[in-house]
Fold this protein.
Amino acid sequence: MRVVDAKETKTVTIKPASSAIGAKWLESALRRGTFSRVSGLIPGGFEAYAALRHPAYRCFSTKSNLADIRHGKHIRSEMLRWSEVAKSDLPVVYGRTSYEESVDGHVRQTQYRRLPDGTWVRDTLADGGLSPLIRGGDEWIEGPVEGCFEPEHTKSLHRLLARFTDGAEPCWFGIWEGWGFLTDSHRRAPKIGTRYRSWLLFRAPLKSMDQSFFRDNPSYHSPNLIWPEDRSWCVATEIDLEATYVGGSEELIAAVLAERSLESERVSLDDPPAMLRNLLQPVVKQPADVSLREGFETRKNPHKRREFKPPPLMSRSERFAHWLQLTRWKMRGQSYEFKAYAKRKKKPRD
């Protein structure tokens, strides 16, 4: 297959790996790690590690884009660093809540608002998500995109990695096998996996990391794993997390941390995954004497939800009659759904 740059017509060939043997070292390392720690996201054994934070987005609604927003289209006007989000007075809205924040077993969108003293108030938005709550003139911050690094940030990382990579050898690329954009030809590639994730394996030049992996999909998708033939470094982007991880030599990680176009931090294998939520702390109840910038916490979904009415319970005799009917149909080779189409057997004439 070919990977296509969205801005250029130039294509880079990316081929399925001939075998998964060259990736077994990474599979073994990830299986030894802990999934809730950095060691479960990127292999151990490197001198140093860095987490590259995926940007958040400052969003605006106007008369021209309100209809698109209402139909679920993302309008991301400006990228923001996490350090900028932590100082902003705009409401920060996550597309889904974390496990700890789920309400009555339902996962709904969460909003954070900053108090003057630096603490945060957390609100759970109405069912139906953010889109139906937005009005013209609203301004807010959306949380980072999970599982994908921004294209321009990927190019910055590529320039750094190229200094530490033999360009003559193709690199390894791992793509999570659960993406719905994968074709049958993609799925025939060899793969590696752990208890929690599996990746299809491909080979291509390092420069192909600048381009979206899925040719026919308009949105950009970065690879989930990248490493060179000599295993001198590794890049990992977990599908459900907000940061991309780099492991390599001390010199490489120092260069990554010094790159101004990237927001990064040094991490260790025992650290938990980096998340913007961790900066929006501590969460407190809103004091009665403190006013906050209004967000979406008081707005209601204008679309009425249909109430679910469970079917009436059957009596014991009705359940027995129902079971008896199903048994008869099964004995005749008929299913419940297609009983109306069963052909009647003709009685032989005398």
Remarks:
- The radius of gyration is 26 Å.
- The mean pLDDT is 85.
